[in-house]
Amino acid sequence: MNQISQENILVGEIANGLPLTIPVYRIKGDGTGPHVFIQANMHGAEVQGNAVIYQLLKQLKHLDLRADFTLVPYANPIGCNQKSGEFTLGRFDPITGTNWNRMYYDTTHLVDEFAAQHIHSSHDVVIKEFRQTIINTLDDKLSGPAYQLTTGQRIAYNLQRLAHHADIVLDLHTGPISSKHLYCPTYAKNSASYFNIEHVLLIDNGFAGALDEASFCPWWDLSHAFAKQGREFDVAVEAFTVELGSQEKIDLAAAKEDALSILSYLTYKETFNNGQYRPVTMTRYACHLDDYIAYYAPMGGMVEYLAPLGSHIKAGDPIANILRMERYLSETPLHTLTYDHDAIAILHFASASVNQGTELYKFFTNYTEL
Asked: Which cofactor does it need (predicted)?
């Protein structure tokens, strides 16, 4: 049986001066495979990823590992404890208002100088030295004057530092009320078929602050920089945001299925000796991020959501009813909403009570089979 070690890393201090820590679990392989980093629960209400890490650890203990694994549940100890009544908030830093998953550090500025210096370096040297350059940059940020970092940045940079040791990065999230879907960089499109996830969002190179982007953007930029100098260099890191369904609940049976999905992908990436996990046969649909459309409530009211998540809707199909009882005597109190495109319903707002302009649904449009 493989041994699991635990380290609690210090990521800050709370108001009474006590340390703010995050648990980090590690399992060593035989040294011949890639390094895998998996984290969960960066947003406070998105708790299902913790159950998936639990199920992964149960499996990984008994596998013949080539890869080294680093697994981080409860990645944001402030977010998961950010409660309002019976609800968990924890999507935004309550002090700055910034999304917790938009505070990672952009290291793409390191690329051009590094590429110029290493145009003739071997493939292995490039990977080792560029990885270390990124980690050193994050170390400098973390060891600099403490007054220069917000609480969220300190948490994010510590997590990002761990992730940059890895060749494979999986950031486990959920939506509000959501079907499962995968954020996949276009260069890794083939890998998406090894997850047991029906809906895939294809994203281009561009840093917007999330962990998957922080992980793959510098390597993608490095690939482009070398290409300009006539050198072929594949993107060395694959990073995905894995959306596991809906927030505010854990489902251990579903978590086991999600763990098997991840293990299928990791078998494809040769992280095990004699890996037996295989993807489920299903039709997968891909949509470019530009075609992932938000539908905002055209009026305020109480919503009955009609479009089943994961379902294919036709232009003009009803997607929701909005009830406006304050207008019962003066006008029609019940309004049926439609969407004017063929689409796949991916997620909807968590509450039935919405203001005009609330993001009601998100839809795949212009989708294709993967």
From this structure: Zn(2+)
